[in-house]
Write a structure and sequence with these properties.
Layout (H helix, E strand, L loop, with lengths): L2 H21 L8 H12 L8 H4 L9 H9 L1 H9 L4 H31 L1 H13 L2 H5 L5 H18 L2 H14 L5 H13 L5 H27 L5 H11 L13 H11 L2 H11 L2 H16 L13 H18 L6 H24 L4 H12 L9 E5 L1 H5 L12 E4 L12 E4 L7 E13 L1 H9 L9 E12 L3
């Protein structure tokens, strides 16, 4: 492949990811541990008593390995933030951009191996399809355990295509032990496939898995026990909580088929039918798709389901879709209709991607509220602490320590509050709290107004307005002075 084109294919996914970061900079509760932990490693160092997880440990503990990597890689930017007295939000953007770059690097490695095995046109098609989709690009820079795991899964499958099966096994074992224990459901089918096809000896595979597993366990236990201040294997606790105790079902359940009938079609968008066409056109795709499909089947046994839990399968299935898309181009001399249909599918995916990104940017009232608060309220000329209370909704929808300012500001996320008299300012769902007055209102997205869409279709001459429903989500309140 032409070197200029190869560099272009490397850069495009990162540009898409960076656009996501700029348009949708804030994070939600699922990402909070890794984001807060990265902040604390950067700004508090070894002062563990200042760390967020000491007061707000979350439902289950998570590993610090990912945040340590992000804090280390973002050190040059963090030094500039300190030296130039820039807002800490600059560090947050840098942290997310670095995570997105790690994903883009792993994806580029996979892309090159796909091009080597399936052809350069499949390589190009893979980038087109991946960038056209919303969910993977959206999550690629978000500090979820799933994102750290996704990066390593892409790297592992690039090694798999290269034929380096021992490193493939080692990377997946490390990822399973440290980041996401459910990847055992991906590792198992892949190992079984390798053994049944006699591509690797059992003894070699067993030793690679055992050595890597023990080393990975020692690393995470050593690091996380120190930072959590108790003996701990985070992913062991998560596995016991989700799989053995099945407590994750308390957050809702879905039917067995949900990943196949709802989650994957939503994530794949127009690539879904191209996966089937790729399976039809190239028999090698069947063995490639077997591990991710088996993973989704096995993971479907757990009642609680979220799209991000099976995110690893999407780029792998996109390889099959890329084979299908390239096949429509290769058969252009026989018929232009398949390629035309594929182009329509890609364009529809891009349109859906843009719409979902715009809607997602409206779902972080907490982050916008904290930024708006510091825009409206000047720094008080006092050495006494100025106390700001952040309620649960704000904390779950974008507030993070990266958005906090230095003294005299002090912030509290104390839950189940009834008496706010000690606070100077509130960011709260309620507009009426005794002793406080509203200084601003933050609105949030409530869904699509389908009645407006119907009215426009009936009488387009009335003009088109964005059919979005809004409602007040958070209020900025100031303590009343007598």
């Amino acid at each position: 492949m032409n070197r200029v084109l190869s560099i272009f294919l490397d850069v495009v996914p990162w540009i898409v990811i960076f656009l996501h970061i700029i348009i949708c900079p804030f994070t939600k509760v699922e990402e909070s541990f890794n984001l807060q932990a990265t902040h604390d490693l950067i700004f508090h160092g070894t002062h563990l008593t200042e760390y967020d997880h000491i007061d707000f440990p979350g439902v289950v503990p998570r590993t610090f390995i990912g945040p340590i990597v992000l804090a280390f890689l973002s050190a040059p930017v963090n030094f500039l933030v300190w030296a130039l007295a820039l807002p800490k939000l600059v560090s947050m953007i840098a942290v997310r951009a670095i995570l997105g770059a790690l994903f883009a690097t792993a994806f580029a490695r996979l892309r090159r191996e796909v091009g080597r095995v399936f052809g350069s046109d499949v390589e190009v098609a893979l980038v087109v399809l991946q960038c056209a989709q919303f969910h993977v690009m959206f999550y690629a820079s978000r500090t979820l355990p799933n994102t750290f795991a996704l990066i390593l899964v892409l790297w592992a499958f690039a090694l798999y295509l290269r034929g380096r099966l021992v490193p493939t096994t080692a990377v997946l074992v490390f990822t399973t032990v440290v980041f996401r224990s459910e990847l055992l459901a991906l590792l198992g089918p892949l190992v079984l496939q390798l053994l049944l096809t006699r591509r690797i000896a059992f003894r070699t595979l067993f030793l690679a898995g055992l050595i890597t597993g023990v080393a990975s366990l020692a690393l995470t236990v050593a690091v996380d026990s120190w930072l959590w201040r108790r003996w701990l294997w985070p992913e062991g606790v998560v596995f016991f909580f989700n799989t053995v105790q099945n407590k994750s079902s308390e957050w809702g359940t879905s039917p067995f088929h949900w990943y196949f009938t709802a989650a994957l079609p939503k994530a794949l968008l127009g690539a879904a039918p191209l996966v089937l066409y790729g399976l039809y056109r190239d028999r090698r795709v069947w063995s490639w798709c077997l591990p991710p499909v088996a993973f989704v089947v096995l993971y479907s046994l757990l009642p609680h389901k979220e799209l991000r839990f099976v995110l690893y399968a999407v780029p792998l299935l996109n390889v099959a879709a890329a084979v299908g898309l390239a096949a429509t181009y290769r058969r252009l001399d026989k018929s232009k209709l398949p390629l035309a249909g594929a182009v329509v599918l890609v364009l529809a995916s891009v349109a859906a991607h843009a719409a979902l990104l715009c809607v997602s940017s409206l779902n972080y009232p907490g982050g916008h509220a904290l930024r708006r608060f510091h825009q409206l309220v000047p720094v008080p000329a006092t050495s006494d602490p100025v106390l700001v209370h952040i309620d649960n909704l704000a904390a779950q929808t974008g507030v993070s320590r990266f958005g906090e300012h230095d003294a005299p500001w002090r912030y509290s996320k104390q839950e189940n509050m009834t008496d706010y008299s000690k606070f100077d300012f509130l960011i709260n769902e309620k507009s009426s709290i005794e002793g406080f007055s509203v200084i601003d209102t933050l609105f949030g997205f409530d869904g699509i107004d389908w009645n407006s869409v119907k009215q426009f279709l009936k009488t387009p001459s009335r003009g088109f307005e964005l059919p979005l429903k809004w409602s007040p989500k958070l209020y900025l309140l100031e303590r009343q002075t007598v």
